[in-house]
């Protein structure tokens, strides 16, 4: 087993990428990140983006790709376009970053969502890639006595659905990040490192109260390959926060 690679979810720098997508990726490499996870491509041709990653020596394991939940008849065709782009770019994983659930979900709601995720997972697998789901805190609501996220992972085979646990949201959902990392060992190739300070405001990795150090300590043994920094709120600037989060990994023997 090898230590996980430290990556940045580019949604963290969305205020920068929308102005200068290519230039921002260069800054991420200069900071010392080893990989990036995409959240949109800003109309950049896949072969051009692949050439940039190769030039910078940046890995790109994955992208967040929303499914067309509001237009279910378009899910398959829209996902096919994303798969085609991902294959040119050389991605391994396509991750759905969010799914709609009612305020008080029922087992029928969960079963319906599981069916959509399974169909997407089969389509992604047939294309030679791996499909996963990224949680927030609402997937930890209990349905029939179990968290929604556990039900989804029970209902859909690991062949078609991997977990990209966001351990900040695991914590905010009232659960223990290390417990979830170990419970799903071998099914969590990618992990989001999001930290929370006061209330629902997130902060730089290592500056908050989420037990991310505990997750890092078990990361190798549970098979996490990439730890991906994500942050949405900033005291100063998104770029400054992305730099500060790297200190946590340096202090823990990474980079």
Summarize it:
The chain has helices spanning 14-17, 21-31, 46-56, 75-89, 107-126, 148-155, 167-172, 177-183, 212-222, 238-251; strands at residues 5-9, 35-38, 59-64, 93-96, 130-134, 142-143, 146-147, 162-166, 190-193, 195-196, 202-203, 226-229. By secondary structure, the protein is of the alpha/beta class. The strands form 3 sheets. It has an 8-stranded parallel beta barrel with strand order 1-2-3-4-5-8-9-12, surrounded by 4 helices.
Description:
It is a single chain. The chain is α/β, with parallel strands linked by helices and 255 residues long. The protein has one domain (5-252): Alpha-Beta Barrel (TIM Barrel), CATH 3.20.20.150. The protein contains 10 helices and 12 strands. The strands form 3 sheets. It has an 8-stranded parallel barrel with strand order 1-2-3-4-5-8-9-12, surrounded by 4 helices. α2 packs parallel to α3 (46-56). The radius of gyration is 17 Å and the shape is globular. The two termini are 17 Å apart. The model has no long low-confidence stretch (mean pLDDT 97). Keywords: Isomerase.
